[in-house]
Amino acid sequence: MTLNADIAPPAPLRGVRFPRVLRTRLRDIKALRLLRGGRISDPGRLPRYAGVFLLAGAAIWAPILSYLETAPLRYTSGLSLILPGSGASASVNLDRIGQASSYANSPFSSPSVSPTETYKRLLAADRILGAAAGSMDMPKTDFGKPRIELVDQTGLIHVQMTGNSPADAQARADALLAAFFTEIDALRNDEQAVREDGGRSALEDYRASVAATREEIARLQRETGLINAAQYQTLVGEADGLRADLAALEQALVEKSRAVEVLRATLGIDAAGAAATLKLHADAEFNAIIAEMAAHAGALAEAEGKYGPNHPALRAAHSDHQATKRKAQQRAAAITGLNLVQVQMLDLSPAGGRVELLAQLVREESARAGLAAEVDSARARLARADARVLDLIGPAARLEDLERDFAVAEAVFASAMARSQTSKVDLYASYPLVQVLENPSLPDAPSSPRKKLAIAAGVAATFMVLIGLAMGWLRRPLIDRLLHTGDQG
């Protein structure tokens, strides 16, 4: 069948014989036929489908073959990091200060912060990639970026680094790992420095508070002589002791005074007279005068019994007795140092058996006088002690308050100092401990290009093209069946 004269081919194509499929009348090519296709048994459709298949195959396999032919070989080195999941704690008891504790939570204890995500971001940070590239003397753009994979519900981090050769890939992974750990140490040191700077001002304030309180305590001690509040309690106890001692001494003085009064009433002489009497009778000359006076007294008594008051013998005896008595008084005044009036009040008769009572009176009076002196001294000491206690009531209360403030300030300062020191042990508070579980590997085969994967992709694409062409070949009966089903519905 030839072409219609209305649509005759151009002059250069006249006489050329076209295939049968191309010689189909244009009036037979309609939109409905293009949509529904031809008959399944029509072999004239095969060249069109073969051409489409060849074009699609060329479009699929040309890039794949070109990629496999021209792509450079790339090698991938892998390493694994792990974050230990347990925390750490430490407690230190400081003698006479208190307890300092340090506790590091597990890095996975907070649901809002994931250390693995933090480290994943840090591994891909520009400064780490730049540092790793700088260690290998290459631009950062040539170094490449790592491929990082996190394993769910674990602390594992898998890192892959690509290079031009197995050794180059391993070297890049080592450089990335070294830069990562260097940056981690720098971040931890920076955190410690920031913490120390932030706590240094607080420590200085605590130290100044302790020093100010200590200076106030020293000033009060210098002014009052009171060393501490316990010393005031000691002074109060001493005053109470003096008061008890004074009461005992006063009671003893009362008893001793009663004993002296009894002896004085018995002897009819006071203690001074008894002492003077004992002193007189210790003198031999006075005793001789007393003996002579006793003889004259006897003669006087005898004369008074024999003679009348104006008898010369009685007068002579009385005169001798008075002369001897005056002599005794003069001797007594010379021995005792008393005047004549005081001597006349003494008992100048021989002591006899009264010597022991006189001596006891002197001893008791001496003891009474000693007790009286002790009582006076105790009263004076008690008065001074009470006055000092009263004067130190206010300073003692102030000193006790200052000592309490000082103890609190010192405890706070020591605690803050201990915390600042123990916090240095916890290096992994913000950046948890990370360890290398698997060192960078040395790849034994290239990771790119992947020939098997590319060929499998080409085969799959080719198969899809074949499925598409088959569906295009069978589309007419399929459409007819769908239309027939729709009409029945």
UniProtKB/TrEMBL annotation:
It comes from the Bacteria. The chain crosses the membrane at residues 453-474. Keywords: Coiled coil, Membrane, Transmembrane, Transmembrane helix. The lineage of its organism: Bacteria, Pseudomonadati, Pseudomonadota, Alphaproteobacteria, Rhodobacterales. This is Uncharacterized protein involved in exopolysaccharide biosynthesis. Residues 203-266 form a coiled coil.
